[in-house]
Amino acid sequence: MPRPEIQAPPEIFYNEAEARKYTTSSRIIEIQAKISERALELLALPNDGVPRLLLDIGCGSGLSGETLSENGHHWIGYDISQSMLDVALEREAEGDLLLADMGQGLGLRPGVIDGAISISAVQWLCYADKSSHEPRMRLKAFFGSLYRCLARGARAVLQLYAENINQSEMIMSYAMRAGFAGGVVVDWPHSSKARKAYLVLTCGPPSMQTSLPKGRGEDGEMCSDDDESGDDESQTVGIYDRNRPRKKLKVNKKGKGREWVLKKKEQMRRKGHDIPPDTKYTARKRKARF
Amino acid sequence: MRLLTHNMLSCNIKGVSNGFPLRLEAEKWVEKEVELNADFLRGIFPKIEWKALAGAARALGYNELPDEADASMLDADDFLRRFHHALLELHVEEGALVCPETGRRFPINKGIPNMLLHEDEV
Ligand SMILES: C[S@@+](CC[C@H](N)C(=O)[O-])C[C@H]1O[C@@H](n2cnc3c(N)ncnc32)[C@H](O)[C@@H]1O
C-alpha cells in the first residue's frame, strides 16, 4: 500500500471510515500505546508524580493521549481531521481537543507547556497538499511555535515515519533552526517493521539533560516476536520504507545467528510457505573471501 | 474545552501582535467533577494569566474567583478549590473564541474549538 501521505491530505485521508477503522484495530491500538509510552519515557519528566500540562500533536482519535491520561497528565490535543476528533470524543478522551493544523503554528502563549509528544504525525508536514502549502514554511511555523510555547528545559518527543533520509534531515534541520537541541533515538534499528525513530528535542541551552538516551535494540538485541511480526493492518499506521539506504540498517557483527534463522523458517512454515528443510548448512557462516 | 486550555491559547493570525486572551462567547457549558491535585495547581499557577481566567470563569457564570491572585493564596484550601473548579471542571461545549485584535471568531462545536486559519491569515 502506498504511504497515506501521498494518497490524500490528512483531513481527507482520515475520513469517517478510516478514523473508525484506525481506532477499532486492536493491533493499531496496541502499537500506538507502546510508542506513546516510549515517547513519554523519553520526555523524561521529573519523577515526582506531579501531573503536567502536555501537548499531543496530531492526537487523532486519542490513542496516544490515553497514555498521557493514564499517567495522570493533562493534555491539549491538536488534529486536522474532524473525523478523528469525533472518534476521540466518542472514546471520551480526557484531554482538550483542538481542530487545528500544526503547519500553521500552535497558537499558544510562550513558555507555558511542560512537554509535547507527537505520534506518527509530523511526517505529514513534508507534503504540499494545497497550492498554498510550502512544506518548509510549515515546518518552520510548526517548530518555531513549538519552541516558543515550551517551558525552558522542557522536551518534545516526536515519533515519525520519514519517507527517506532527505525528509528526516529536513525535519531535523527545522527543529534545530527553531533553537532546539537534541537528536534522533532509533529503537529496533535492525527490524524493518518494529523500527521506530523518535526526535528527542530539548528547549533551551544544552545541559546534562540533553544527552540522548540509547535506542532499544541498538546492540542487536531482538525485540519480541510480537513487535516484529506484522500483518496488513500495521501498514495503516506505519510506513516501512523498503528503499531506505541499506547502510542505515547496521547489522550486528555476528549476524542474526542460526537460532534466529531456524525460528523464522519455522514461523514461515506455520504460515504455509514452502521452506527448504533445515540442514547443517542452514545459516552457516561463510568464509571471509565471500 | 476547559479554561486551562483557554488560558494558554493565543490567536496566531498573521500580523496579530496581541492575540490573548481570546474572548470567550459561551452558549453551552457543562461541569465535570475531577479530583483536586494541589501539586498540579501550585505548579501551573505561575503560568496562569489570572485576569483572563477570572474573566472566562465569569463568562460561564462562575463568579467565585478573586480579581487578583498571588502565590501566597495557594495555601488556602478554599482558594485551591475555586481555582481547581474554574481551571479543570468547567467545559465549554458550544460557543466561540474571538480574537481580541481582529474580531475573528473561532467556533467551538461539541467542545472542540476550530482554530484552522484561512489561507490569507497564515
Ligand atoms: C497515524 S495518525 C496518529 C494519531 C495518534 N497520534 C495516535 O497515535 O493514534 C496521524 C494523525 O496526524 C494528523 N495530522 C496530519 N497532519 C496534521 C496537521 N497538519 N495538523 C494536525 N494534525 C495532523 C492526522 O489527522 C492523524 O489523525
What would you say this structure looks like, in words?
Chain B: Belongs to the TRM112 family. Chain B: It holds the Pfam family Trm112p. Chain B: GO terms for molecular function: protein heterodimerization activity. Chain A is built from eleven helices and seven strands. By secondary structure, chain A is of the alpha/beta class. Residues 225-251 of chain A have low confidence and may be disordered. Helix content of chain A is 35%, strand content 16%. In chain A, helix 4 (26-43) crosses helix 5 (63-70) and helix 7 crosses helix 8. Chain A has a seven-stranded mixed beta sheet, with helices on both faces. Chain A has helices at 4-7, 10-13, 16-24, 26-43, 63-70, 82-90, 135-149, 165-177, 225-228, 234-237, 258-270; strands at 53-57, 74-79, 96-99, 113-119, 150-160, 181-187, 196-202. With 122 residues, chain B is an alpha+beta fold. Chain B has one domain (3-114): N-terminal domain of TfIIb. Chain B is built from four helices and four strands, in the order αβαααβββ. In chain B, a hairpin with a 2-residue loop joins strand 3 (105-109) and strand 4. The longest helix of chain B has 13 residues, at 77-89. The radius of gyration of chain B is 15 Å and the shape is globular. The structure holds S-adenosylmethionine (SAM). Residues 10, 14, 32, 58-60, 63-64, 78-81, 84, 101-103, 119-121, 124, 237 of chain A line the site of S-adenosylmethionine (SAM). Residues 10, 14, 32, 58-60, 63-64, 78-81, 84, 101-103, 119-121, 124, 237 of chain A line the site of S-adenosylmethionine.
